[in-house]
Design goal:
This protein is mainly alpha-helical. Helix content is 79%, strand content 0%. The protein is built from 14 helices and no strands.
């Protein structure tokens, strides 16, 4: 019953966001724009999607201490990306389950994915802040706030590395705040801090930290390349680079909305918002949004299906395994942090 309600809620949320994105936009204009898309540039964009998945696999392999082969990491990551297109989004748990088959513990795999997410969020925040400062009609106050937001993201990244190298500093900082704010002791902050510290351990060494940060930048740059190629496919030349940064960063936040079907609706709405910011027509923005989203899903579907075949697993088997592993893993993680 709970799963059914979640799926229904996802459909409703996607429908609402899609309606908001499409309001007052003639659908025939969107279709006409898509029909004129250049196939060559579309194929180039699919290549960027593939390269982006490969670089993310390299990053993850490094975070796992090179305990799996790059091709194995590639297939596991692709399967996870495919599963994340479903309403229940069991992809990351499934990736941890698959890593266990290669001798990596579930907790180690899960914490490596936590590091990925932290790095992704920080990079997206920094890029979005920089992009907002470049918009033509943004009030100075907003530009200054965006710049400060970006600086805060850089500081947060530095602090992650510092805490990874000196975890006792994070514990002491929590104790300091608890002395001045006693109510914090009633919250499970110690478990949270210990779980985060466990997750960021790979950043404790400069070599592994540089590996993770460097490949994060490369993989997100390839995402910009995907968007740029699709803009060229639709013959759009209105400040493509700025719109690419805005669209990729805002779409990443849209993907983070947990209740939706493959992020349909929030994703397109994010790209339309980016187009509005640089003066692109709503029809062109939505054409680009649908194409950008579709190419990413197509890439995940192709490589995720290949991964399932190569690793000899099925989607239903993975979903069942993920459901079994999820709850015990959380319990283990909490117990280990005490």
């Amino acid at each position: 019953m709970r799963r059914t309600l979640f799926i229904l809620a996802s459909i409703v949320v996607s429908g609402i966001f899609l309606w908001l994105a499409l309001r007052d936009v003639p659908q025939q204009d969107i279709l006409a724009s898509l029909q004129q898309a250049d196939l060559g540039w579309i194929l180039v964009s699919l290549g960027f999607v593939t390269a982006g998945l490969w670089t993310r696999a390299i990053r993850w392999r490094g975070l796992l201490g090179n305990r799996v082969a790059t091709m194995q990491a590639f297939h596991m990551l692709n399967i996870a990306m495919l599963l994340n297109q479903l309403p229940l989004r069991a992809g990351e748990v499934a990736r941890s389950v698959l890593a266990m088959r290669s001798g990596v513990s579930f907790i180690t795999a899960a914490t490596s994915i936590l590091v990925e997410r932290l790095l992704d969020v920080l990079l997206v925040v920094i890029w979005l802040a920089l992009a907002l400062t470049q918009l033509p009609d943004v009030p100075p106050e907003m530009s200054n706030a965006a710049a400060l937001f970006g600086i805060a993201g850089v500081i947060a990244l530095v602090m992650l590395v510092v805490f990874a190298r000196r975890p006792q500093l994070a514990r002491n900082l929590l104790a300091f705040f608890e002395r001045f704010l006693p109510f914090l002791k009633r919250l499970p902050l110690h478990n949270l801090v210990e779980n985060v510290l466990e997750g960021i351990k790979p950043l404790a060494h400069w070599r592994s930290a540089a590996h993770a940060i460097g490949w994060t930048i490369i993989s997100w740059t390839l995402s910009l390349g995907t968007f740029y190629a699709l803009a060229r496919a639709l013959n759009i030349d209105t400040d493509i680079f700025l719109m690419s940064v805005l669209s990729v960063t805002l779409a990443s936040f849209a993907i983070a909305i947990p209740v939706s079907v493959a992020s349909i609706g929030p994703f397109e709405g994010a790209v339309r918002l980016s187009g509005d910011a640089v003066g692109l027509s709503a029809a062109q923005s939505l054409s680009l949004g649908f194409l950008f989203h579709g190419i990413n899903i197509l890439g995940y579907a192709i490589w995720g299906t290949i991964g399932l075949v190569v690793m000899g697993v099925s989607l239903s088997e993975l979903v069942r395994s993920s459901e079994k592993a999820d709850s015990p893993a959380e319990t283990t993680a909490s117990a280990g942090a005490k």
